[in-house]
Every structure is written in C-alpha cells, then in structure tokens.
C-alpha cells in the first residue's frame, strides 16, 4: 500500500508557517489525495498528547478510513514499550525506529539485548518493528542484527537515501536488505554543486528526477507482491518563504504519488 508520512508534511507541520497543520489536518489531507495509509513518524507532539488527545486523533483516523503506522527514534525498552502502547491505540501494525535515539547510542551487543527484551511483546501483539537504514550504522551490521534475532516481527525500514553519508551506494543497501524489508521510505535525492563550485550539497529532488533507481528497488524488494508499504516523504529545503515552501511540498507529494501509481 502507498502511504504518506509526517515527513511529507514537514514544513506544513512546522512553526515557520503561519498556521501549522495539525496531525488530524494531515490525516484529512492524506484522504483528500486518495491515500489510505499514514505513518506518524518522528512527530514530537505525539509523545506529549494526553489520553483525550490520543483518543481524538485515533478516532479521526478511523473515521477517515486511514490505516496508521508509527515511528520513533531509539530502541530503549521503555521507548519501545511506549510505542507498542501507542500502536494499540491507533490499531497500528508497524512501528518504525532506528538504533540511535535522542539519548542513546547502543553498541550492537546492547542493541541485541534491548531488542530481545522488547520483541516478545511485539510478537504477542502482532506488531512489526522496522529499523531504518541510516548512516550511523553500516547496512550490513543492521542486517546481521535483524537476522540474529530470528523473528518475523523485526525487519528493516529501507531508506536508501540515508546510507550515502557512509559512502554506501543506495543500490547496495537495497540488495543487502531485500530479504528483511518490512517498510519502505520513498523519496528521491540528488547532488548539486555549491555556489563557486566548491563542493556539493546532497538533498531531495522531485520523485523520478534524481538519482534513486526506484525501479531497481521495486524489482529487488518486490514490496507490492509482499505486502510491504511504501511511505512517501521528502527532503525539501526551505524555499525562501512559507507559501512557496508549502506549495512546493504539496507539489512534490502529488508528483511522488503519481510516480508510484504509474509504476507496476
């Protein structure tokens, strides 16, 4: 299933716009685009909502017919327990995270211990934990960690754009992780020369215009055959003013959805 995530609304949620979009507003915008899946990923207000706010948000998602996934940073057992509780509130069947959190940088041995403590509860609840590919951890190490724990409820959230900062090739990350992918983050990316030709910047691009070989990912991972959700997000730089930035963000979302819907 194709979905949108909070990173597709990054600037619309931010305090740099006059009227930041609420979470429920993002739900509504998602359904207006004909999308039935939303990933609440790294959305800080989620963790400070009280019970009433959580009930209202979950009810809004259900009323709109949205399937919800969740996302956080870190794998401390307490954090994973908290997000399993939130998953229950939203009827979410997937929680995306990453090894490093705001206050933790576990070794691989510590990560294995922490995950081992948390995963039985995920297995019992039927919720999958998907660890994202990031530059902080070599992709082959992440694959080895996931493999070592031997449960179908632990997988990888594949984002090939992130690994470039480790000088890994996105295609290599796709091929290394293919058998363990449980979730895909969809965005395009490109290099551009800095002014004066003194180096490059690496950032987002409209889907289909950058360096991401998405057909290779589709052929290798086969997300649609395997029931793996594809979540749209962007690396969109600030465009100089709020109206231009919001308009561009919405345009990129439509471009990405059109691209995904046009691919077999």
Return the string of H and E elements: EHHEHEHEHEHEHEEEHHEH
DSSP helix fraction: 40-55%
CATH architecture, by name, is Alpha-Beta Barrel
What structural class is derived from the secondary structure elements?
alpha/beta
Distance between the termini: 13 Å
Low-confidence stretches: none
CATH class: Alpha Beta
The number of domains is: 1
- Discrete helix count: 10
Largest sheet: 8 strands, parallel, barrel
Task: Report the count of strand segments.
Answer: 10
CATH superfamily name? Divalent-metal-dependent TIM barrel enzymes
Largest beta sheet: strand ordering: 1-2-3-4-5-6-7-10
Residues in β-strands, percent: 15-25%
Radius of gyration: 18 Å
Outline of this structure?
Residues 27-254 form the Xylose isomerase-like TIM barrel domain. This protein has 264 residues and is α/β, with parallel strands linked by helices.
How would you portray this structure in words?
By secondary structure, this protein is an alpha/beta fold. The protein has one domain: Divalent-metal-dependent TIM barrel enzymes (TIM Barrel). Helix content is 42%, strand content 19%. It has an 8-stranded parallel beta barrel with strand order 1-2-3-4-5-6-7-10, surrounded by 6 helices. The protein has a two-stranded antiparallel ribbon with strand order 8-9. Helix 7 links the parallel strand 6 and strand 7. Helix 4 runs parallel beside helix 5 and helix 5 packs across helix 6. The two termini are 13 Å apart.
């Amino acid at each position: 299933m194709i979905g949108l995530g909070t990173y597709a609304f990054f600037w619309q949620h931010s305090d740099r716009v006059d009227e930041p979009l609420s979470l429920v507003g993002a739900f509504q915008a998602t359904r207006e685009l004909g999308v039935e899946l939303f990933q609440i990923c790294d959305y800080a207000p989620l963790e400070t909502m009280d019970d009433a706010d959580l009930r209202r948000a979950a009810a809004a998602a259900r009323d709109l017919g949205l399937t919800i996934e969740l996302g956080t940073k870190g794998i401390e057992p307490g954090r994973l327990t908290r997000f399993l509780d939130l998953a229950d509130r939203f009827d979410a069947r997937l929680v995306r995270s990453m090894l490093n959190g705001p206050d933790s940088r576990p070794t691989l041995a510590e990560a294995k211990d922490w995950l081992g403590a948390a995963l039985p509860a995920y297995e019992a609840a039927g919720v999958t934990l998907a660890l994202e590919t990031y530059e902080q951890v070599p992709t082959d190490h992440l694959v080895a960690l996931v493999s070592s724990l031997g449960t179908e409820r632990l997988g990888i959230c594949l984002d090939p754009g992130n690994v470039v900062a480790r000088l890994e090739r996105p295609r290599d990350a796709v091929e290394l992780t293919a058998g363990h992918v449980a979730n895909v983050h969809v965005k395009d990316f490109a290099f551009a020369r800095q002014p004066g030709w003194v180096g490059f910047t690496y950032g987002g691009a409209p889907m289909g215009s950058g360096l991401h070989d998405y057909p290779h990912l589709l052929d290798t991972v086969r997300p649609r055959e395997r029931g793996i959700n594809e979540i749209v997000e962007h690396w969109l730089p600030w465009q100089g003013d709020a109206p231009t930035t919001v308009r561009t963000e919405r345009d990129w979302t439509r471009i990405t959805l059109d691209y995904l819907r046009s691919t077999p």
